[in-house]
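Follow-up to my earlier ticket, as requested here are the two runs.
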Amino acid sequence: MEKIDVLDNKGNKTGEVKLKSEAHRDGDWHKAVHVWIVNFKGEILLQLRSKDKDTHPDCWDISAAGHVSAGEDSITSAMRETEEELGVILEPRDFLFIGSVIQQVVLNNGAIINNEFNDIYIVRANFDLSSLKIQKEEIDDVRYISKEELKTWVEEERENLVPHKEEYELLFNFLEK
């Protein structure tokens, strides 16, 4: 059972630690990390969330993402999630922090109240998709997609793309620099 630090609405630790499920039930603020892997052609690695996930099953999403565990810092969580979900071992220097996004969403008819501060990272690397060791409990597939195609998906508000409106804008602005 994953434990996370409870934050106040400004992102500061309150000193309280809860199970992730309890924080989601109670709507407590907490932190997550989102890692976007971009290859040297500028293509973005997406993961297809497992059909068994409790939120956004069978939808395309961020390369790797997860909650910051209690007592853990953001970069350590980003390294852990990338290794767990994709089998990729990275160093802190491989991650470029591009900003934070606040996410407030109610899912599954109110069963999950997700109030998160999401730290967003870019990793520039070429990974052969066949060499990735994807976490079968979390991910059904991975693929690279061009920035232009992802922009089209976002503009079309595709049903099988997890909505991260503000985060996509941050990603596209960074990639266009």
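Run two:
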Amino acid sequence: MSTHIGATKGTIAPTVWLPGDPLRAKRIAEKFLTNVIQYNDWRNMFGYTGWTPTGQRVSVQGSGMGMPSLGIYVHELVHEFDVKTIIRLGTAGGLQKDMHTGDIVIAQCASSNAGTNTRRFRGMQFAPPADPTLLMEAWTLAVEKLEIPIRVGGVVSTEIFYNDVDMDEWKLWASYGVLAIDMETSELYTLGARQDHGFQALSILTVSDVLPTGEELSAHDRERTFMDMVRIALQLT
């Protein structure tokens, strides 16, 4: 067991899908995996391990909201449970006018406005990339095999959800071609980029709202389109 994950060695698979919402982790495990065991319920941050339809063993772990929370779970998954691949399955706000809710974004790299990386890199800027092998495989599988339209490009991770200081900050990122804004990808990619961590990282995001147009997904549509990300992850596992 680690500090925040009440699992024993061997109960977590080398590949982990990482939604933020622990209840979404539960739904994914129930819908897509068989012979499922629950290995974690500490802090209600549920974690499950099961088998895909093609016979691959995979785990689904909630990570909570924001980069600090994700960073805790990623660190423990990698260092305490020898996880080798982490695929974030999350939602994001679209930043480009031609985007629509339900669009799938695969993050090529992730900028951030967080103080975490400012401190980590001593005031310098770092935009960590996705694992290139996973990125190329995801694109190929989504477009050629599953026929799921996707967009590949930069995203930005923010540490403020309700930004009442600069409500138009997103427009700056949008003007530089950033596709979407979330709260976790930058930390996942930063940890994955560190050479001694030794794991592959990829972030697949569903656009839940579009900031320039105000378009938003209903709760029903969020669930339906979220499953497209899982279909891609299944093929990568």
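The only thing I checked on run two: The CA atoms of residues 24 and 223 lie 9 Å apart. Let me know what else you need.
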